[in-house]
Amino acid sequence: xxxxxxxxxxxxxxxxxxxxxxxxxxxxxxxxxxxLPSFGKDSSFIENGKLKSTIYVGKxxxxxxxxxxxxxxxxxNEAKIEFDIFVPNSFQKNGTCNELGKFSGxxxxxxxxxxxxxxxxxxxxxxSVRIAxxxxxxxxxxxxxxxxxxxxxxHRYGTAINPDFALNKEQVYTLKLYIKMNDIGKQNGxxxxxxxxxxxxxxxxxxxxxxxNVHIKSVWLDTYIGGxxxxxxxxYILMDNLKIQWWTLDDK
Length: 252
Description:
The chain is mostly beta strands. The chain has one helix spanning 3-14, and strands spanning 19-25, 44-47, 50-55, 61-68, 78-86, 101-107, 128-133, 142-149, 159-167, 172-180, 189-195, 198-206, 218-224, 235-248. The longest helix has 12 residues, at 3-14.
């Protein structure tokens, strides 16, 4: 094959269309939770058309569910989640400020020895990204950011991203998180976070994987307080209008 033909073939490959897939959960029917099976500890339930995640005093976790892409298509390299969230005054009240809690995100944990829970990623095929939160600020707002386990992390715990943005409590926000896997050997993974359509974080220089068989395994629905310090009050969050969108090279 001459070089001119090689260039033609390569160009055709680049413009192959991606198939878009969408799954929406309005939480008006408890049967929707069949597609969001529990993962680990979970005390969430549907109430008044919303997914309620309760965390009791002295406990860490309220929501632990996953949307497994393999149950619908091949595992993708590109995905986006969007959902409404309501945080009450009791959430992270008097929380510990040097510890990050977790909300929902994505994971590609193929080796359970890394990519979560203080398990550093070195050469394992694992990564995860979750929206993070910490203690109230001086205005009683809830600061949020991102918490990322990735092959270039330097410490035991995930890399914390602080976009200097906080949620007012007792108010509904729409959060949206987009991820695209890096090409192998390149530092071009994309991660973007929006709040009410305002982009509060964007980077196109992440490395999430070093092997081509590492993809996005699931949407990780999570509500966790800590770190090591549990909730000091009975609390909860409400989630609604969850939309999951992902892209694959074919429709299977």
